[in-house]
Amino acid sequence: MALKITHDCINCDVCEPVCPNHAISQGIEIYEIDPDLCTECVGHFDVPQCQPVCPVACIPLDPEHEETREQLQAKYRRLVGIAS
């Protein structure tokens, strides 16, 4: 399941640089996470890197983009160019 940033975001810019997939970018009002790039850091780290650095805890799981760990791992492999 991809993560999302809620409207509680204060645009502090701490989440964007810690994302290994470059899935986080500044949106029109707040930072946004591209679900096609978000692997919840699977393949890079044991836990998502954006959640612990967020000072307002506004990065929950996105129920509109449910994925299993296996699907996240496959997405990671595709993003970094590793053949299945």
What is this structure's SSE topology?
Elements lengths: L23 E3 L4 E3 L16 H4 L15 H12 L4
Antiparallel strand pairs: 1-2
Low-confidence stretches: none
* Total separate domains: 1
Number of strands: 2
Task: Determine the CATH topology.
Answer: Alpha-Beta Plaits
Strand order of the largest sheet: 1-2
Output the radius of gyration.
12 Å
SS class: alpha+beta
| Level-1 CATH class name | Alpha Beta
How much strand content do the residues show?
5-15%
Number of helices: 2
CATH architecture: 2-Layer Sandwich
Give a description of the structure:
The chain has helices at residues 50-53, 69-80, and strands at residues 24-26, 31-33. The longest helix is centred in the C-terminal third of the chain and has 12 residues, at 69-80. Strand 1 (24-26) and strand 2 (31-33) form a beta hairpin. The model has no long low-confidence stretch (mean pLDDT 95). It has 84 residues and is of the alpha+beta class. It is globular and about 40 Å long. The chain contains 2 helices and 2 strands.
